[in-house]
Amino acid sequence: MMAKKDKIYWAVTLAFLAGFFYFFQTIKPPKLFENEAPRDKSRDIFFGSRLKGFSRSPNKINLSVDAMISEDLLNIKLNAQNPANDTFDSNAYFYRVLLGRSYPYSPAIILKEFSKKLGAKDIFELEFPWERIYLRDEKAELYLHFNLYRRNGSKEPSIIATTTHSLLFGQ
Amino acid sequence: MNIRKTSLIYVVAIAYFALSFSLTYTRWKSHSPSLDYHAYVQMYWNTANGDTLMYNRGSENQYSLYKAHFSPFLLMIFPIYALVQHPLTLYFVFFAVISTSVIPLYFFALDKLQSKLSAWLIALSFLIYFPFAFTHRQGFAEEAFATPLLLWAFYLLHKQKPWAFLAFSFLTLSLRINMVIPVFMLALYAIAKSKYKVHGLFVALLSLFWLFYTLYIIYPNFNLPSERLYIAGFFSDYGNTAGEIAKNVILHPLSVVEKITAPEKLNYMRWLVGPVLFLPVLAPEILIIGVPVLVLNMLSSYPRMSHLWTYYHSSSLPFIWLATVVALERIGRIKIGRKVIVNALLAAIFIVNFLIVKNTPNGQHFPFSNWFNRSTHEVTARDKAADEILTNIPTIYSVASNYGFLENTAQRKWQFPVANFKGYLVDLVLYDPLALTGEALEIPDTDKEYGRLFTNNLFFLFARRDLIKKYSIGDFITREFKNYDQNAAYLAASNPSEKLPTYSGMTTTRVVDINNIYNLVQKLDFANGNPAVLQFPVEKTELVRRVKILGVDFLLPKRGTGALKAEILEGEDFEKNYKIVYSKVEERNELAHKPSILSIDLSKLQIDASRTYWLKLSMETNTSGGVSLFNSYKVYLTKNDESDLRYSLDGGKAWSGNNYPKQSLIYSIAYDSVKDTILTKGTPQQLKQQLQEMTKTSQDYKDVVVVGAVTEKL
């Protein structure tokens, strides 16, 4: 006959292991964007052709970015629409336009960083040139990212929406 | 347990912990890298900041460790890091656990051999057994915890504590997927050899379930169906999936035998069991628990898995040593002189292990060894200068640096090695042209995306151009600081001169000797007027004599004579018509076995930049006592088409520019001021206060470069 102490130990062991295995099967990779779908199978391989139309801004805010390359300038057009009733306050949120070689959240050249209030059902458009100081002779496919961030005090800001446009330089 | 009688082994374990941790501390302070430790520090920092066990693996994406290894053990010890968020916290816990390995081994030996002397000889021999030292002294890996955890599991089973055996088996499983093998084997041993067959059966089933759970539940959560499993990459010679690999191994037994009997694999086994005189074969029922992992290591397509200078054998070591103890117990059953024979064998094991670490490269982690790697533990003034830079970089910046600095830059979301810098648009690059290990160096193109922020002690700090903004200190203090995010920390650099220091080249092409035979003269290139400081790196080398006995390299240190002499000569012809404007014999004790920077204050030498100057490096010798063995020093060269470098092969009698054409001694020259660039970090308000203080004490600093984006308010 099993001793009472052993019975308790077996019960605790089985309960602990059940809890342990249940807990770890619920863990998923952390979200890189706040609005990301919980299980996004495209994320790890979107680099490349799938990045061209990449956008993560469901329901909250819709961003778009377009650009024309000329000899000395990059003419960039931004558009932000807020279909919801939330307000994106200029103290808590800011926008960044990045030119990089990969993902929207990776380190990249900051072409413009600005803050602007976007109220409920509001919309804004912005057009600006960026002088191609050190990309004049580059032949490469680069990605233009338009991201909306929320400030996190002294910590790195969180990306809450992003959109990407691919650019072929020197082709 | 009688504490008074047994406490000394705990003291030895604590002493081993103190020694290991202090050596690793100096290694960290001297910026000597240790395998992938930087990646684990980054995972912990990310976990503390909400991203569980994420790291960027030197790439531009973020990965979870569970994509490669299911290691919940790392989360179990994470709370200690959460309390003390220091890069060495994980090492502290690592050594604390590893150091306990000797305790169960000692008590098991005491039980089996019934002799304190025998138990002590086992414990001390184990501590100087180099395959054990390399599991944790070469670097960090969660798999290395297997040595103490399995020793405790086995010992507690032996002491008839089945629940503790079960707990330690569970902890071992939680290290990595391959720990399923030794735990399953140990469970079979418990079923066959102990009275706790139910516990053994439970652990066996648990390990099988663990394998299934990791392969079919955890990995699919972190990997795409189309992706090859990370661990399958270790066996790519046999296939891409677990099934394919298993099938090919079973269907091709001859090629498997051929692979594991290759000379280098047999040598692997020889170094593992040779130091215990091959005695474990007398206790095969214990040795067999650790063998399957070794076979797996030998079958791997990744050669490092069957190298002893890593940790992949850490789960086999317990069974090699436990089997040694049982073998000695069996030898001790003979009637005549049993204790003498056992202790003589143990003394031989101790002496063999001592001689191995004392005289062969396997002793590089032992301070008493002739092969102890001093350069990885020396902390020079240049290391302190590196820390000045590293501690001033706020965690919010992404950083690329040489391998040696990654452990110092790991507490951030993005870290990159400069070895494959090309393509990254990282915020800051800390570049060391004198870095060890022959890294394939890629440096930022300073004409394009990057600007140089800082040069000192031959370290270069670059920042991406879009982040750099230069202000007069007055403007920044009065108004510009308001444009920055008041909660964020920024890096700022204040230079005493408008001209940044110039340098002869940025990539080491070769290292050459300076001694009683080889001398060097370098023409100095002053790019600007008013040169203030000349800096160049030097390192000393040790004289040794190698003797080969029974196939083992013995290394005997030798004492030499001769100190490095540095001179600056003025004149077109450094051989005939010149004036010595500077001469100094450097104290050998002041130099290290890795680059030390020698600085010459040019501002005191009345240097006229329009004239010709040469730096001459030779040796001051004193051979009055007869023929001597001479010391040697090393200096670094870089590619430079414009350079005029002369090298002498006969102690300075004849000079030639043909030995190292288009090469220059690595050196830098600062201008206008002997003061250094000052790096500061802080919120805009803190930067403002620091700059105000600086301008009160010195008028030399006029401008400040602030690194960071400014948010326009539209």
Automatic annotation (TrEMBL), chain A:
It comes from the Bacteria. Keywords: Membrane, Transmembrane, Transmembrane helix. The chain crosses the membrane at residues 7-24. This is Uncharacterized protein. It comes from candidate division WWE3 bacterium GW2011_GWA1_46_21.
UniProtKB/TrEMBL annotation, chain B:
Pfam families: DUF2079 (PF09852). The keyword Transmembrane helix applies. It comes from the Bacteria. Keywords: Membrane, Transmembrane, Transmembrane helix. InterPro entries: STSV1_Orf64. The chain crosses the membrane at residues 6-25, 90-110, 117-134, 140-157, 164-192, 198-219, 271-296, 308-328, 340-357. This is DUF2079 domain-containing protein. It comes from candidate division WWE3 bacterium GW2011_GWB1_47_11. The lineage of its organism: Bacteria, Katanobacteria.
